[in-house]
Fold this sequence. Notes:
Elements: E1 13-19, H1 27-42, E2 48-50, H2 64-67, H3 87-92, E3 97-98, E4 102-105, E5 112-119, E6 125-130, E7 136-139, E8 143-146, E9 158-161, E10 166-169, H4 178-186, E11 191-195, H5 202-218, E12 221-225, E13 242-244, E14 250-253, E15 259-265, H6 267-276
Parallel strand pairs: 1-2, 2-3, 10-11, 11-12
Antiparallel strand pairs: 1-15, 3-5, 4-5, 5-6, 7-8, 9-10, 12-13, 13-14
Bound molecules: 2-oxoglutaric acid.
Amino acid sequence: MSKLSKPPTFKPFKLALIQLGNIGADKSANLKHAHEMVMKAASAKPDLIVLPECFNSPYGHVHFPVYAEKVGFTPGEPYDVERTESESVKMLSSTWLIGGSIPERDPKSDNVYNTCTVYNPQGELVAHHRKVHLFDIDIPGKIKFKESETLTGGSTLNFFDTEFARIGLGICYDIRFPELAMISARQGCHVLIYPGAFNMTTGPMHWELLQRARANDNQVFFSMCSPARDLTAGYHAWGHSLVADPLGKVLCEAKEDEEILYTDIDPNVFHEARTGIPVTTQRRFDVYPDVSK
Ligand SMILES: O=C(O)CCC(=O)C(=O)O
């Protein structure tokens, strides 16, 4: 994970985003439904399946410590999925799968993180990302949210290699910090995937704009996978799971209900964008040397 080796050759692949619905208070029911939807998505034989942010628990800072699981890894150490205590990790091991995110309790520090886990087709947990930027906002009369009341921010940037692409990870609010996407792209990621759950205020304002911007800035494919909207839940997710191409064009977008979106990722678009508008080789670090390389 996240070592600077040569990226794999970027090859065409089929991506499936599961905009999961019916996420309620019952964790086993959430996992059962997620499993059914992963199996349903897998029947179309995609190369990579993605679940949304917080797919096993209601979204809200009060819920995170209650639903948090010991996932079975320590950053910097090899993963040991055999010894995991996490029901969610056991359910997820099936194909190339970005397991959205779940609240994770670190066994040593007892800190709770919002964590994305990634599995290869052998069912091994091969990468993880702890949400770096916590969603603490207050838009009077609209939305107030404070993840930092119960969560700790991660402190690493993460990507993983498949046989078809190098894929960078982030979670939701991480998209507002272009540095994360920029550094992942400079480390050779072809595709950036951020499970996310925007809301009814910032969703219409920024969900599409930010994804198209990160895609276009970095000339990569960019995708966020959201839960479906549930107006009976405490948090109303925007939905609209989306994939943008390296020119910033929206390739596909869900509405607000439960849905599986399939997209063919074509490396030619990536290469043509970078050849036609060669910003990746025209940067002037002599003018902005403080920007991380
Ligand atoms: O950035 C936003 O507007 C929403 C972020 C969010 O919902 C999250 O980080 O979970």
